[in-house]
Amino acid sequence: MPTYEYECSACGYSFERFQSITAPSVRKCPRCGRLKVQRLIGTGSAVIFKGAGFYQTDYRSPEYEKKAKQEKTKAAGEKREPKSSKETKGGKKNA
After folding, report:
1. What is the C-alpha separation between 1 and 40, in angstroms, rounded?
2. What is the rounded CA–CA span in Å between residue 79 and residue 83?
3. Whole-angstrom Cα distance, residue 29 to residue 56?
4. Does residue 93 sit in helix, strand or coil?
5. Phi, psi (degrees; rounded to nearest 5) at 61
6. pLDDT tens digit string along 3-48?
7. In whole angstroms, what is the distance from residue 95 CA to residue 82 CA?
8. Where are the beta strands (DSSP E) in the chain?
9. Cβ distance 13 to 31 under 8 Å?
C-alpha cells in the first residue's frame, strides 16, 4: 500500500496517509476540520523498473561493462600455470 501526501488549502497543514490505492482520498483536514484537503502528486520511488530485470546492477553503463570484462580477462590470465622449463614454443619437450 502506498503512502499519500495531503495538504489542506485552508490552513496549510501537510500530512501523509498510508492507505490502499482503492481507498477514497482524505477530504477533511485533521487540524482545522475543513473540507479543503487535496492529495499532492508525489515524487515516486528511487527504483526504476524497466526491461526484463529488476536489479539496479542490470543497467550498468557500457564503460563499466568494458572495464569489468578487461579485469575478468586479466584475472583469468593470472590463474594459468606457468609453462614447464622443459617445453619449447613448438610444444615439444627438450631432451
Report:
1. 16
2. 12
3. 39
4. strand
5. -70, 155
6. 899 999 999 999 999 888 899 999 999 999 999 999 998 766 555 5
7. 19
8. 3-8, 14-18, 37-39
9. yes
Cell 482545522 maps to which residue?
32
Locus of grid cell 590470465: 77
The answer to whether residue 53 scores a pLDDT higher than 60 is no
Q: Which residues contact 47 (CB under 8 A, 6 or more apart)?
A: 56
CA distances from 58 to 20, 31, 54, 90, 93 (A): 31, 46, 7, 44, 48
CA-based torsion, 38, 9, 18, 25: positive or negative: negative
Query: pLDDT averaged over the chain?
Result: 78
The residue assigned the cell 495531503 is 6
DSSP class of 91: S
